[in-house]
Design brief:
With 189 residues, the chain is α+β, with helices and mostly antiparallel strands. The protein has one domain. Helix content is 32%, strand content 24%. Helix 1 packs antiparallel against helix 4. The chain is globular and about 50 Å long.
Length: 189
Amino acid sequence: MSIPLENVTPLLRGFLATYRPLFWVSMIDAFGLVTNPPISSESVSIDNPKVFYITLSAVRNLSLSTKARAAFLIKDAQALSMDSFRDSASNPQHPLYNTSHAALVNGFGNQVTQLRRIYGPVHMVNMCVLFIDFSNGVRRSEYFTDFYFADDLARDYSTQWKPDNWLEHLKTEVAKGKGWHRDDVSFWE
């Protein structure tokens, strides 16, 4: 790797901006919102937020000339309850154990308060986290970036486009390195 560590954060932000709609589609699918509309699902409520946790790896030969959209690959992605994510910050036995998660959990609590002031109490708020443990051959550092997804519990996603396998679709689309947009998928920012 021929990239200074301080250049990883801007690449990660550009990567998130490029693939955010794909992450949303994958997240609502992983949360079961496409097959089980939130109004009728016990697994989704304003009191049971979820975390969509995406683990990244850097592409081979990452350099300063690599475009953000092609800088990373998806190693894994999974849906967790907020309780499980909170546990990952303090329990060494948790598969995603990382003490840095505590700051993300605290940030989520603050964000929920702000979003509920804006959108009202009927909205669910969930979090998406992108994580990479990166080494440039000289130094190593962990990077996190997150965003929040707030929506009305009555929204029905059952008519939303749904790939056959959301994780494989997510990995495949990101591996193309071209960005992602579909006219038949409607999200807002």
